[in-house]
Amino acid sequence: MDTKNRNKILCCLSNANKNPITELSFKTPFELLISVILSAQSTDISVNKVTSQLYAFAQKPEDIIYLGINRLKCFIKNIGLYNLKARYIIQTCEILLKKYDGIVPNCRKRLESLPGVGRKTANIILNTIFNKKTIAVDTHVFRVCNRTHFVLGNTPLEVEKKLIKVVPDIFKLKFHNLFVLHGRYICKSRNPKCKTCIINKYCEYDSKYR
Ligand code: SF4
User: In terms of Cα–Cα distance, which of 118, 143, 135 is closest to 177?
Assistant: First the structure.
């Protein structure tokens, strides 16, 4: 895809949604961190359901530690991989308290050293909380980029590196949420809604409805 088409897509999506935000519910950086850890292979809706109850009891790392792993598991048991995620969350809270005074760090290396936090999660935290021009590539961003030919890549990291090069700075802060929302509601994995898609004429998907 050429630069002109990419910019058309960015302008179209951006004009249609001036302030794209995550659909995860959170009030603090810590809550967002926990919600993103929980969201791996789970929907935002299912995460919000459990966190609405969890965060009523625990809003800080020390609260989660006080809760303990068994009670934490009870809160999050409707989320996939909850046993593993509970372990990650307890370990992450311990590290936050021990090394960072209970505060979510604003640096990639420190974030990625936390259990359950990979590159994608770090990018989301850096972007959403600390306004860094990082681009998190999740399943929606990966699919939409490859399908539309916005950028092509075999891995999320390959796509992310290309995006960082081609997405103009003014769009970097909002890019992740713009593409996530487009992928979640329009350019779905199955049955993309090409007929009503606002970027149809710029999209280079071979099978799109014309
Ligand atoms: S035209 Fe279809 S394939 Fe292209 S972005 Fe829109 S929904 Fe996705």
Answer: 135
Catalytic, 120? Answer: yes
104, 64 in Cβ contact below 8 A? Answer: no
* Candidate of 203, 204, 206, 207 to mutate for ligand 1, largest count of ligand atoms within 8 Å of Cβ: 203
pLDDT per residue as tens digits for the range 187-206: 999 999 999 999 999 999 98
Q: How far is the CA of 108 from the centre of ligand 1 (A)?
A: 32
Separation of alpha carbons 191 and 143, rounded Å? 13
| 205 CB near ligand 1 (under 6 Å) | yes
Distance CA 6, CA 202 (A): 8
The torsion defined by the Cα of 14, 19, 21 and 25, in degrees rounded to 10, comes to: -160
Q: What is the largest CA-CA distance in the chain?
A: 57
Question: CA 40 to CA 116: how far, in whole Å?
Answer: 9
Atom from ligand 1 closest to the CA of residue 192: 7
Write phi, then psi, for 208 (nearest 5 degrees): -65, 150
pLDDT at 118: 96
Q: Give me the catalytic one of 8, 49, 98, 120.
A: 120
